[in-house]
Each structure stands twice: as structure tokens, then as C-alpha cells.
């Protein structure tokens, strides 16, 4: 068949070309693979993974599929949405979805030929894409968005038929979104719309992009809209992103990798996006010059790195104070002996509690011999550390800052049996109502638990046993951390047990353990909470937030933990 080009590509041409057989052949130009054979509906998330599972649904009028007849005879290859415009004829998709002789089919119904599609077939008249867009791993992948003006259909414009979505600047990297797309039809005979509803976005490190973790986002969803909210009709909404960006919208992994259909990217909508939107509405093509990426928030890195974090503790090491406006800092010990300080920021963005990082000790340093560390304060304006070493030595550092560790004091010499052989886990806190935050709680291998009070004055000589030896409970304490979860005068103890149960002991003192509050049951996902640290990491500045490094390396922040349990989980380091 001879195909017309440019504005000569009409509705009638598109309908004649797009037979049912051609509409059923689907290839995503991003190269995102179809589901493997044997995949019938949705590959479920691996056990223990966080995030969401998407679902198939009937679709919405303003979202549909793109077909194109370029040299590769690609079909049903991307997703697009109609957006408000002065000409009432614009659609939005990804930059890598631009193709010749393209047509848009809103709320595509695979059971009907082109002539009988419920909301028509709309040929693309003209494409608008940023001249600096690059379909690769570069920062120019931040520009993976495009607009197209559509030909009318019977004298009507597409927005008059299906409505138009509102484009909104991306508020930031952390949002709650609904993402819609049409996975390609291979191994999915129903060929329906697919959505991930109410999923949280996080920053894609080093890019002006955000990401979601939702299973089922296979090839074909490229260009699909990210809605921050939907209108009451359910047919339109507010769009803050589209599937695209780094590697055309997904991680650079093999299609058999579990992350392949789960992790999906979108550029953020800033000045550059809205310049292109204006160009498309005015039917002009401007080169807006070299792309200058906006300043990015500090990123904590990737899960592959965080798998190697073996201990964390929070405190005000570099300034700030309890009751102030700045978040606490976090010190992390890595399995190769490196020690990193993450400096607390003052942003209200919950997903970005830290502003920068400092290396306090290099790899293969003496800190490879540190067994555990915990924050204490003996009355100074900033916090210090207590460290237990593998040879049984116990050390206290009066202060820690971006330059390192200061005021070293030995609390117990090397080869002290109590600390070399008997101690299991420990945590610092304020457990005496009139004292500083320089008390130390220690659980020992034989199950007994002791409180060492007032380290500044007494060192490790003032020991009070608060739990007797036992073989049924405390030998199974996995992680200890302290915080202000219940509003008591003294701090609360949080224990993550090896079976996943997690409990609070409110207002701990030397008089014994208070009644426990269970916030997670046995065999919960907290079995995989490998490292836990509490602190003040939000604008609230109360030390009732908990950071968890999970066994697969991803890191979460639970904000506002209290006697009622855990509440919002905020991803800080995503899976993958």
C-alpha cells in the first residue's frame, strides 16, 4: 500500500491501513520487551519486595495507544494522552515514541477494527520534541517527552470528543501517582489498559526524574501519563509525568530480571517541558539551547551499595539541636571499614532527609573491626559515639563531626571478656530522668539485659540488671534503637526480634522493662529489617522516625512512629 506523508495522512488512510491484523502486532520502540511466554496476566512481585502490583482495567477516554507505519512497520507501540490546548488537538507521549505516519486511538478496544474504535482514530499531523533530547543514559534523557498535533476527525477535534488532561509542574520527586499504559499485546490476548494506582514516586539518583516500583509495566507503556489526581468524571486528570527518561523509561537490566517490569521512570516537568508545550500549542519549533539540568536533591545512592551497611546510628553531630529545625545526621558503618556521615538537611521533603555526606574513615580502616556503634551525649552541644570493637575494647568519642572523631576515651580495655565474648547488641539513650543521653543498654548472649548509666561520670562501672538470664526471649533480639515514640520523660526502646516481631518499651528506666507494645507481629516483613536506627528526620524534629536498611539493600523511612504502630513508609533508597 502506498502511504501518504505529512498532513496528507488522513483518518481514511489510517483506517484503511490499520487492519485488525496490523493493529495486533505490537513493538515498543524503546526496545522494552514483551512479557515472557507463559505470562498470562501479571507477573507478581517477588516475596518480600516492597511496592505495588498493577492491574488491568477498561481504560479512560483521554488515554490511548499510538500506532505508526514507519520503516519498521511498528504498531500499537506506545501510550499517549490528550492534553488541554488552544487548538484542542494535542497529545502527550514520550520523546522516544515519535514516529512517522502515526495515529492515536483513545481508549483502544482490540476487539474492533479501526473504523469501529469507540472514540475514533486520530492521525498525527506534526510532532514536537526537544531538540536536545537524547535516548540514552545521559542527563538529556530528562527531556523524554513529546507532543503531537492531531488531524481532526469529521470536523471535530480530539479534545472535544474525549476531554483534555491538565499539565502541572511536577511538585518534586516524591508524589502519589496513578500511572496508566497499554502493555504490548504479545502474550496478553485481552490487550487492555493497565494501571498502577496510588503508588509513591522517589527520585532517580543523578537525574531530574522520578521512579515508581509497580509490577506489570511491560513494553508498550512508554509515554503513559502519571496522574497526581483524577477529575470526578474519571476521564481526565492532572498529569505530572510520563513513562520515559533514563534508558527510555526503565532500568538497564535483562528482561528476565524481576526489576524489569517493576521499576519505571518519568522525567519531571519543569521550565523546559513547558517551553515545549508552548511551542506545540503555537505550532513552532524552537531550539532552546543546551540543556542545563536543574539542581538535584541529595541522593543516598543505590540498594546495591546499601546492602553493605552493617550499622547505623543517628544524632546531632554537625550542628543543630533537639527541638531545632534541622534533621539529625546519620552515621553508617560499612562492611569494608568505611564510615560515612549523612548530614541532616532542613528540607520539608520527607524523602530527602539528608543534604550531603562525608567520609569519616576510608575503606579497610580500623573501623572494619568495629562490631557496633551508638550515639550518646555527655553534655556537649553535639553528639558523640560509643563503639564496641571485636577485641573487646569499648571506646567513647565525645564528639563527631564532618572532620572525624574527637575526644577518644577508653571505657574498657582490649580482651575484656564481658565485651569481647558476652555482649550481643547495645544501644545508647536517655534512661535516667535527670541525666544526659549517655546511658547504655546492652543485651548479652545469655539473655540478661543491663543498663550502664551515666557514662560521662561512671564509665561502665554503674551496671543495673533489668532482665535476668533467659533462653527464650532476649537471645533473639536482633536490632535495638531508641527514640521518643510515646512522649515519656525517658526514651523508648524499639526492639526488632529475629522472627520479625517488633516491640516498643515506653519510657525505659533502670527499674526494669516497662510493658511492651507490639507494633509488628511475628513473621512480619521486619524479619528482613537488617539495620535499624531511630531519629528526627522530618520537619517535626521529634525523634520518632525510624530508618530501616532491608536485606535486599533498599532503605525506608517510617515517620511518626508511636504506640499505635508504624505509619507512612517513605522510600529513601529504592529497590534495584
Layout of secondary structure:
Elements: H1 11-17, H2 20-24, E1 52-53, E2 55-57, E3 63-68, E4 78-83, E5 90-93, E6 102-106, E7 122-129, E8 146-150, H3 158-162, E9 166-167, E10 176-181, E11 193-200, E12 202-203, E13 209-215, E14 225-230, E15 237-242, E16 263-267, H4 271-282, H5 303-306, E17 309-315, E18 329-334, E19 339-344, E20 354-361, E21 370-376, E22 384-389, E23 394-401, E24 404-412, H6 417-422, E25 423-429, E26 439-444, E27 449-452, H7 455-458, E28 463-467, E29 477-483, E30 492-497, E31 502-505, E32 517-520, E33 529-535, E34 545-550, E35 555-558, E36 569-573
Parallel strand pairs: 1-13, 9-15
Antiparallel strand pairs: 2-11, 3-4, 3-6, 4-5, 5-8, 6-7, 7-8, 10-11, 10-14, 12-13, 13-16, 14-15, 17-18, 18-19, 19-20, 21-22, 22-23, 23-24, 25-26, 26-27, 27-28, 29-30, 30-31, 31-32, 33-34, 34-35, 35-36
Give the strand order of the largest sheet, numbering strands 1, 2, ... along the chain. 2-11-10-14-15-9
Helical segment count: 7
Amount of helix: under 10%
Q: Report the portion of residues in β strands.
A: 35-45%
What shape does the CA trace take?
A: elongated
- Taking pLDDT < 50 over at least 5 consecutive residues as the criterion, the unreliable ranges are 1-7, 25-49
Note the gap between the termini. 46 Å
Mean pLDDT: 87
What structural class do the secondary elements suggest? Answer: mainly beta
What is the strand tally? 36
Cα-atom Rg, whole angstroms?
A: 28 Å
Largest sheet geometry: 6 strands, mixed
Amino acid at each position: 500500500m502506498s502511504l501518504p506523508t505529512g498532513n496528507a495522512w488522513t483518518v481514511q488512510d489510517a483506517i484503511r491501513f490499520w487492519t485488525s491484523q496490523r493493529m495486533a502486532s505490537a513493538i515498543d520502540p524503546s526496545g522494552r520487551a514483551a512479557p515472557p511466554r507463559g505470562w498470562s496476566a501479571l507477573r507478581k512481585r517477588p516475596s518480600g519486595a516492597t511496592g505495588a502490583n498493577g492491574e488491568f482495567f477498561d481504560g479512560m477516554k483521554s488515554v490511548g495507544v499510538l500506532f505508526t507505519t514507519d520503516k519498521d512497520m511498528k504498531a500499537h507501540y506506545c501510550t499517549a494522552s490528550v492534553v488541554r490546548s488552544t487548538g484542542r488537538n494535542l497529545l502527550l507521549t514520550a520523546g522516544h515514541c515519535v514516529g512517522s505516519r502515526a495515529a492515536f486511538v483513545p481508549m483502544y478496544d482490540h476487539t474492533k477494527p479501526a473504523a469501529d474504535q469507540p472514540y475514533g482514530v486520530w492521525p498525527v499531523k506534526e510532532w514536537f520534541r526537544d531538540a536536545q533530547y537524547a535516548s540514552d543514559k545521559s542527563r538529556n534523557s530528562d527531556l523524554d517527552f513529546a507532543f503531537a498535533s492531531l488531524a481532526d476527525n469529521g470536523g471535530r477535534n480530539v479534545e472535544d470528543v474525549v476531554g483534555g488532561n491538565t499539565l502541572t509542574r511536577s511538585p518534586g520527586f516524591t508524589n502519589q501517582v496513578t500511572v496508566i499504559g497499554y502493555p504490548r499485546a504479545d502474550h496478553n490476548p485481552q490487550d487492555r489498559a493497565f494501571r498502577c494506582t496510588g503508588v509513591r514516586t522517589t527520585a532517580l539518583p543523578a537525574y531530574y526524574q522520578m521512579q515508581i516500583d509497580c509490577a506489570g509495566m511491560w513494553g508498550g507503556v512508554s509515554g503513559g501519563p502519571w496522574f497526581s489526581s483524577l477529575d470526578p468524571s474519571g476521564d481526565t486528570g492532572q498529569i505530572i509525568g510520563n513513562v520515559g527518561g533514563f534508558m527510555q523509561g526503565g532500568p538497564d537490566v535483562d528482561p528476565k530480571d524481576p526489576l524489569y517490569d517493576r521499576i519505571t521512570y518519568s522525567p519531571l516537568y519543569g521550565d523546559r517541558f513547558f517551553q515545549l508545550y508552548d511551542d506545540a500549542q503555537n505550532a513552532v519549533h524552537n531550539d532552546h539551547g543546551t540543556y542545563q539540568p536543574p539542581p538535584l536533591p541529595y541522593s543516598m545512592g543505590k540498594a546495591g551499595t546499601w546492602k553493605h551497611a552493617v550499622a547505623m546510628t543517628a544524632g546531632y553531630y554537625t550542628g543543630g539541636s533537639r527541638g531545632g529545625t534541622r534533621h539529625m545526621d546519620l552515621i553508617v558503618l560499612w562492611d569494608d571499614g568505611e564510615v560515612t556521615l549523612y548530614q541532616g538537611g532542613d528540607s520539608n521533603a520527607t524523602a530527602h532527609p539528608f543534604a550531603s555526606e562525608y567520609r569519616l574513615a576510608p575503606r579497610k580502616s580500623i573501623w572494619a573491626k568495629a562490631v557496633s556503634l551508638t550515639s550518646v551525649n555527655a553534655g556537649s552541644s553535639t553528639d558523640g559515639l560509643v563503639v564496641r570493637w571485636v577485641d573487646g575494647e569499648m571506646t567513647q568519642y565525645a564528639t563527631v563531626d564532618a572532620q572525624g572523631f574527637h575526644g577518644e576515651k577508653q571505657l574498657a580495655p582490649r580482651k575484656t571478656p564481658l565485651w569481647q565474648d558476652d555482649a550481643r547488641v547495645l544501644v545508647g539513650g536517655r534512661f535516667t530522668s535527670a541525666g544526659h543521653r549517655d546511658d547504655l543498654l546492652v543485651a548479652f548472649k545469655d539473655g540478661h539485659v543491663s543498663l550502664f548509666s551515666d557514662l560521662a561520670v561512671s564509665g561502665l562501672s554503674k551496671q543495673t540488671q533489668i532482665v535476668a538470664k533467659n533462653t527464650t526471649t532476649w537471645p533473639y533480639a536482633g536490632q535495638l534503637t531508641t527514640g521518643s515514640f510515646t512522649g515519656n520523660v525517658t526514651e523508648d526502646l524499639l526492639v526488632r526480634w529475629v522472627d520479625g516481631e517488633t516491640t516498643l518499651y515506653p519510657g525505659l528506666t533502670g527499674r526494669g522493662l516497662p510493658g511492651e507494645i507490639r507494633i509488628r507481629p511475628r513473621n512480619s516483613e521486619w524479619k528482613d529489617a537488617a539495620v535499624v536506627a531511630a531519629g528526627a528526620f522530618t520537619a517535626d524534629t521529634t525523634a520518632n522516625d525510624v530508618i530501616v536498611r532491608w536485606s535486599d539493600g533498599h532503605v525506608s523511612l517510617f515517620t511518626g512512629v508511636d504506640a499505635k504502630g508504624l505509619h507512612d513508609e517513605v522510600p529513601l533508597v529504592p529497590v534495584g
